[in-house]
Amino acid sequence: MLYVKDKITEDVHNWEEQLRDVAEYAEEQDFSKKLEVYHAIHNIQLDIHKLKVNMSMVNSIPENGLVFSRDKILNKYNAIKEKMANDEIVQAAQDEESNDDTSFAEGLSESMQNTNLAIQAYTMNKKEQISADVESLLDDIQEQMSSLENWAEEKYESASEEVRNEYHKVLNKLQYHKDNTSSWLKEYKESSEETLKDAKSGLSDAFSSLADSWKSALKSIKK
User: Among residues 45, 26, 42, 43, which one has the least CA distance to residue 34?
Assistant: First the structure.
């Protein structure tokens, strides 16, 4: 029961954190919706309180009553777990938070598209400018990748190993395309007038793949 108790305690803490986020979501709604959200929060908080009371009483229950008490705790725990996963109001609040949390990353997509168009248009005498622009954007992308990874780690903290492996593949693919673009940028910066065309084409293709991978990563992780 010790492991189960630790797991329940951890989940209760996470639920209470989520309900605080739901309360913030409530404050952004109109009066009628706000009442509905707070009513849902109150019901879940009441269930959590009952679960805590049941858990605190386990040590004082005679041995012949422990099985019944443990079953009661697990039933209550599973009921709250299902409610947190399926309640429409809780999900609406989490979806809004998810959109807010990844908005920092979505703005880069347009910048990538504009930069890629600029790569195609630049000639030899603009090479230093495009190199500086791409290098600056790659620095931004690396920083946002770290933020996106931290956000995903928190979101999928309690997910199955299969799910966690899947989003790690998405992030690894994104890192690969970022590193490939960096390599082509080096080729581009060192290119001569004779090799500029090939270097520019390689950089453009790499940057396009990076932009597609970025959009795919956001789409996959936000599911």
Answer: 26
